[in-house]
Structure formats: C-alpha cells, structure tokens
Design goal:
Length: 294
C-alpha cells in the first residue's frame, strides 16, 4: 500500500506520547477514554517545511489556550510542546510534513464530568502533501453550501480548536464529496458567511479583500498570515460581516489554513470565480514565506 492508503494505526515510525517517543503501533489509548466519549480534546495542525515547523510558537500557545478553555489541566509550556514536536520530526526523519499535537482527557474517570481525569499529550507527524491536489489548487476548487451552521459562541468554546467542534465539519465535507465538490462553505447561526470545513475564507472585490469577522469560529493562524501578506503588497483587507447575497459581487475567492495553505476557489455553489492576479500573488507569497524565500 502507498502512504495515502495505509491506515494511521499501522505504520512505521514514532509518536510522542506522555513524555517520550514510543513505536507508532504502540501509541494507544483505552476504549473508556473520556475524550472518545465526550469529545474532551484539543489539537493543532502544523506544517513543517524543510524540517522547520511554520509558526510553531503560535500553534503551541493556541493548544495550551484551547485546553484552558475546556478546563483541561496541563502543566505543559510552549517550550515543552515545541521540544516534543521537533523530537518527533527528527525521530521520523521527516522534512516537509504535517504535525498533529493533541491534548485529551483520559480514562481515569468515566462520566460527563471531567474532574479527576488526567490530561494526556501526544504528537504525531507524517508526510502529507497539499490538502487539495496541485492541479485543483491551480484551477481553483469547487465548494458547495453546507446545511450545517457554525453555532453561537454562547453554546460552544468557539475560540478553542476543540475536536468536538469538528463533527459538523466532517458531516459537511463528506456530503460535499458525495455531491462532487471539494469542500463546503458553512454559514453561522445568524446566516452570515463563516468558513469552510477546515479553513477560513477571503473574497476580492474592486481590489479589496474581504473576510468574515471570526466571532464564532477559529481565527486561523494562516488567516492572520494571509492578512499580513496582503498588507505587505498594499492590498486592503476588511474584516466584516458578509452575507450570502454578496457572493455574486466578488471576483476572486480563496481559502486559508495550515492544511489548505492558500487555495483558490473557482465555484461556491452557483457562483463562479476566477483565479486572478491577487489570488495567485497570495499563493506565491505564502509559498515563499513558508520556504523562507520571502
């Protein structure tokens, strides 16, 4: 089997688990793990380019912050997480790779309450190419509207990268694939444009980039990087509420995320977009930045 066909439980290599590296196949948890039953885990997605994780400090700090939002106890520092990440990359002899740090409540207690559980920590890393195929990225991917909406921040810890918040993203992305699309656009609880299933979204109109205000979904690290890159080129970026009725007025659109990097869009449902100059510049500038050419 190729790497893309292999199950993630049966691979060579090493995973960092609770303080040290263990053989990949031995990195296991108990079936009564709290996180498995109640979604009490937080994670990060990081990419390394040439062996150097991009914005690792920011990702590690967000992991700690997410854990605190879920009232998970952890004594890990940013340096502790960084050290585990770098040792895991080295142990697996990887250069360009994806990294998944994870904090979760264990099986020490069972029930809705999390008190009395221990917070466990792991880091896995593997070779993973672009989230979308290179060909699709060049021509722009096609996404549909999802029936699932991002919930109100009064109902979820919206600023945490918590595993349980991705359940509706899985449902939306799987439905999109069945319908022949690459991903799905989610509205929020007010009916405003929010994000894709695992990436933030930007639109272009009259030379200005517009992106939804992240008040009920994650303010992505790549999203902020894209804003910085656009500003460097003198492109104005407006963060605001965007309604679905506005989508026909935009000429270009793209997604941003650690996995997606910067991915142009060609369709959102019935709406068509070109992969124009500003989008192409954003793709190139991000590629130059992560490979330390910018």
């Amino acid at each position: 089997m190729t790497g893309s066909e292999m199950g993630f439980d049966d691979r060579d290599g090493f995973i960092w688990l609770d303080g040290g590296l263990v053989p990949w196949r031995e990195a296991k948890i108990h079936v009564l793990t709290h996180a498995l039953h109640y979604g009490s885990s937080v994670f990060e997605g990081v990419r390394a380019y040439g062996g150097t994780p991009f914005k690792l400090n920011e990702h590690s700090q967000r992991l700690i912050d997410s854990a605190k939002m879920l009232d998970m106890d952890t004594e890990l520092s940013v340096d502790d997480i960084n050290k585990a990440v770098l040792e895991t990359i080295a142990a697996n002899n990887l250069s360009d790779c994806y990294i998944r740090p994870l904090l979760w409540r264990g099986p020490e207690k069972m029930g809705v309450a999390g008190e009395g559980t221990k917070t466990h920590f792991s880091v896995a890393t593997w070779a993973w190419p672009s989230y979308f195929s290179p060909e699709k990225r060049l021509e722009g991917i096609k996404i549909e509207f999802s029936k699932w909406k991002r919930p109100s921040p009064e109902t979820i810890p919206a600023k945490a990268k918590a595993a349980g918040l991705y359940m509706i993203c899985t449902l939306a992305k799987d439905q999109a694939a069945r319908n022949g699309y690459d991903d799905a656009l989610m509205l929020d609880y007010r009916g405003l444009v929010a994000e894709a299933t695992g990436a933030n979204i930007f639109f272009l109109k009259d030379g200005v980039l517009h992106t939804p205000t992240p008040d009920c979904f994650l303010d992505g690290i790549t999203r902020r990087t894209a804003i910085d890159l656009a500003t460097r080129r003198g492109v104005k970026v407006v963060e605001r509420a965007i309604t679905p009725d506005e989508l026909p007025d935009f000429t270009e659109a793209f997604l941003t995320g650690t996995a997606a990097e910067i991915t142009p869009l060609s369709e959102i449902g019935p709406h068509k977009y070109s992969v124009g100059e500003i989008t192409k510049n954003m793709v190139q500038d991000y590629d130059d930045l992560v490979h330390e050419r910018l």
